Every structure is written in C-alpha cells, then in structure tokens.
Amino acid sequence: MTSPQARSLTEGLYRALRTEILSGRFAAGQRLRPGELSQQRGVSLNVVREALNRLSGEGLVDASPQLGFAVVQLSVEDLDDLTALRSLVECSAIRTSVEQGSLGWETELVAAHHRLARTPMTRPDGPDELTPEWMQAHNDFHAATMSACGNGRITALTAALSESAAIYRHWSRVYDRDSRDIGGEHRAIFEAALARDAELTGRLHAGHIRRTADIVIAAAGARELTATRPESA
To answer: What is the DSSP annotation of 151-175?
Structure first.
C-alpha cells in the first residue's frame, strides 16, 4: 500500500511536470528520463514513474516499453481532428448553456470572465510561457460558458477536450505572440453569452478554437511539429 507521504510526493511531481509540459518548458517529443527526474527532483523512481504514468493516461506523455517516456508529439492531423470534435461538442454545449442558464449561471460567468481578464497570461521573463494561473482562469471561463448545458457527460467530455488542446495553446502562443487579441475574443464570447445570443456565442467560440489551430498549422506547414522551438520565438 502506498504511504500518504509517497502519494503526496507523486501528486506534487505530477502537478509540477504537467504545468511544465503545458507551459512549454518541455518540448514536444522530449524524452523524460525517470532516473534524471528522480535526481533532479529529489524523489524516488517509483514516485517519478507513477507521475509519468498519470500524465500518460491524460495523453500528455507517450509511454513505450522500448523508448520509455516522452512528451507527446504534436501533429497537424491530430490538431485538425481535435478542433473538429471540439467545435461539434463544445458549440452545442455552449448554445444549450446560453439558452438554459439561470441568473446564478450569469453570475458565475461574470466572475469567471473578470478573473480571466485580470490574470496575466505570461510573465515578463517568459513571454512564450502561459502562466499556470492564466491557464486555470482560461479553463474556468470556458467551462463556465458551458456549465448550464444540463448534461454531465457532455460537461466531462468538454473538459477532457480542453485538456487535450492545452499543449496546442502553448504552441499557438509561441508562434503568434501578440498579434492576436485573445482578450478581445474572450470578451466577445462573454458579451454574446450574457446577451443570450446562443448562435452568436457558438460561432464566436468555434472561431476562437479554430484560430488557435490555424496558427499552429500554418507554422508547422505540412510537417509534424518537432521538439525544436522556432528560432524566431
């Protein structure tokens, strides 16, 4: 049986590695060697392997008996498939949520947007890295727009899809920097939702996630994204 201390260490390492992968500190395809991580983080190999296996279950790490662990590779085909599925599921959830949402839902949406708008996306010393605080506020805002859809399975699916897209959001930031008004896109979605315009909210959300995909796909061209950051980043 795993001790409470070991569970705590595993949870802490899992959260730290997850944040570093999603913020881009580990590049796509980068090998994650348990021995090195054990020495660097001051934890046992069992703790490292348990954390990496959790990340593998979430699709952020590839696990292979021959090659070990590595940050998941990114591909244009996967991003296209993911974006199409998100558009189908999330836009349906948003339209239903906007139509059915109560006054309490509006209050939660206002609070979520306010928190997102006031949370710094990056730090001055790391303009390519999305801050954990912004990533959480971003997830909370989009979850709030869909939270009144009334279907628990759809809510769980939208959360999983958003997690799958998190690493692509990082690459979109790397390639696009400040030419995109992400705050303006969120504000437009928020205002349309408060106005109870379900169709417009859905269209704006679809355009929002498609724009992220298009930036990454345009930068990648016809190739698979590699573990190397662009020289211009």
So the answer is: -HHHHHHHHHHHHHHHHHHHHHHHH
